[in-house]
Amino acid sequence: AGISESGGECALLADQAEAAGIPFDPLAPELASELIDEFPNFLAPGNPLDAWGIADETEVYPRSLELLAASGDYDVLVALADPSQFRDPSNDEWCELTLRTLARLRDEHDGLFCAMTTVHSADPPRHFQRLARELDVPLLRGPRDAMQALSGVVGRRPYAPPTAAATTPDV
């Protein structure tokens, strides 16, 4: 499942996913109803989900991602956001919150793979790169490359977060 900040970006992400062989499945009617109940400004939620302007972005993005993850319908959550060195830094808060939410949901839901991709192919600001590394959430550049990368790993095996070795290897 995917989420973005623009209907146009959702269409771009969906087109690139289709081209990469991993089309987005429609939302189940029950999940769409849950989203509408939670946020009445969602008139016809789709997948990818355009959450911009629905409610305060610091509420709608985390909660929408939580509902998508809790549905159990998806093994991958991807957020298309715009953490950009060319954009007003006032947008950084919700982008960072979305990245942190993806990390939390990955830890809370076995087998759920979470990633964020930027809208463009330019490097995101360094602090987003560091945070993504710290949280161990893939931060991909551009919808086309992101969907191609995800298509290469989606069918391989269920995602499992790294675990610490139980014993130290004898080297």
Sum up the structure in keywords.
6 helices; 171 residues; alpha/beta; globular
Tell me what you see in this structure.
This protein has 171 residues and is α/β, with parallel strands linked by helices. It has six helices and five strands; from the N terminus they run βααβαβαβαβα. It has a five-stranded parallel sheet, sandwiched between helices. Strand 3 (76-81), helix 4 (92-108) and strand 4 (113-118) form a beta-alpha-beta unit. Helix 1 packs across helix 6 (143-154), helix 3 (57-70) runs parallel beside helix 4 and helix 4 (92-108) runs parallel beside helix 5 (126-135). It starts with a strand and ends in a 17-residue tail after the last helix.
Any chance you could write out the topology, listing elements then pairs?
Layout lengths: L1 E3 L2 H13 L9 H10 L10 E2 L6 H14 L5 E6 L10 H17 L4 E6 L7 H10 L3 E2 L2 H12 L17
Parallel strand pairs: 1-2, 1-3, 3-4, 4-5
Helix pairs in contact: 1-6, 3-4, 4-5
Short description:
This protein is an alpha/beta fold. The protein has helices spanning 7-19, 29-38, 57-70, 92-108, 126-135, 143-154; strands spanning 2-4, 49-50, 76-81, 113-118, 139-140.
